[in-house]
Amino acid sequence: MINNLPQEQEFQLHWYPGHMAKWDREFNQHLQTVDVVVEVLDARMPLMSRHPDIRQRVVDRQKPLVTVLNKRDLADASLLDAWKDYFKDLGEHVLTVDAQRDAQAKKALVQAILAEGAVAQARWVAKGLKPRPIRTMIMGMPNVGKSSLINGLIGKKKVHTGHKAGVTRQTQWVRVHPQVELLDSPGILPPKLERQEDAHWLALVSSIGEKSFDDEEIARFCLGYFNEHYPHLLRQKYGSPSGEDAQNDWSLERIATLSNLIQKGGIPDIQRAAHRLIVDVRQGQLGGLCFEVPPAH
Ligand SMILES: Nc1nc2c(ncn2[C@@H]2O[C@H](COP(=O)(O)OP(=O)(O)O)[C@@H](O)[C@H]2O)c(=O)[nH]1
Ligand SMILES: [Mg+2]
Predict the structure, then answer these.
(1) 284: left (phi over 0), alpha (psi -120 to 50) or beta
(2) Which residue has the least CA distance to atom 16 on ligand 1?
(3) Residue 248 placed within a domain
């Protein structure tokens, strides 16, 4: 599959749009003015959805960080604690959240920001400055749920959200608590990936644009992982009621046949099967999934 990736240059053109390069530069300026940074990751693929060096820039500036694993509802519940422990062991302040539904977790996020911002507030008081709300920047790759998280915190829809990458193009400040102001921001992607095959997963979760790959390529790549980790969920979703297809080597051909996606002449419709799998995964129709497991450390 990796061999099927477009040449590097073409590849970058597709998924690193110009406005992102601009935001990457602006990010450094914003970083000077904020007190706390919240990094939003996709709980299904926390490390693959983490920008490789943005975080380092935050740490270098000695700004406190809160790590949010969002879309908890779509992730494999049996791995969430392990992921949390993984980040805790790295010394990070980590929370798992479902930005769309989970009011408790959102309160916990405000508490985390207040706790991390306390140092900055104490500094102003020591300098005799007038207290002001803690300025918090929400950062993360496109589509991880930054805008949804802010909307959930303010309790109404104020910032734009969307299921495609690149919905938020402008930065905007919103007050979510008397002591906390948040800055929504456009998603940020690295210009290059260390492991280019990760781009398939980023396309699956719509962090990179739809045009980067075709459905069939994404679906075939992901099926390889699902066969290894979640064959029972594939069987549950697509298997025949008689259970005669107990083997664990799921293919698009088989999903097409079992889902009755057949073209003229009785040929399995691979494109439609690929699309179906992608939509089902995005909507959580197979159940909770993670696309990577916490590395041993
Ligand atoms: N299931 C689920 N969907 C979410 C969650 N958070 C955000 N979304 C959806 O993910 C998509 C991207 O959200 P958005 O807030 O625009 O992401 P942003 O690009 O990081 O600002 C939208 O379709 C949201 O409805 C979550 O916790 N669970
Ligand atoms: Mg947004």
Answers:
(1) left
(2) 161
(3) yes
